[in-house]
TrEMBL record:
Superkingdom per UniProt: Bacteria
Source organism per UniProt: Salmonella enterica subsp. enterica serovar Alachua
Name of the protein this chain belongs to: DUF4102 domain-containing protein
Ranges where the Integrase DNA-binding domain occurs: 3-87
Signal peptide bounds: none
Record keywords: DNA integration
Length: 94
């Protein structure tokens, strides 16, 4: 079940960081200081990794889910998000 805005807004800090799951490996990480950040976990070539998509509520549900879907497409094409950023940077320099 997808995370709702109400659930995300009502998330209280705890002694330890905890995750509020959304869908398809996307979650909101709630830190002890109350900071909340979107994070997407993935596995590539047998290694687990992840990418952050920005703080909540500054990064909306719609935008973060769009970024998750774009990242999934990149992974499906055989590249990691960091490889894609590096390639895009290299192309923009030429």
């Amino acid at each position: 079940m997808a995370l709702t805005d109400k659930q995300a807004r009502s998330a209280k800090p705890s002694d330890k960081p905890y995750k509020l799951a959304d869908t398809l490996s996307l979650y909101l990480l709630v830190k002890p200081n109350g900071f909340r950040i979107w994070y997407f976990k993935y596995r590539f070539e047998g290694k687990e990794s992840g990418v952050s998509f920005g703080p909540y509520p500054e990064t909306s549900f719609a935008l973060v889910r769009e970024k998750r879907d774009a990242t999934r497409r990149v992974l499906k094409s055989g590249f990691t998000p960091s490889q894609q950023r590096r390639d895009e940077k290299r192309l923009s320099m030429n």
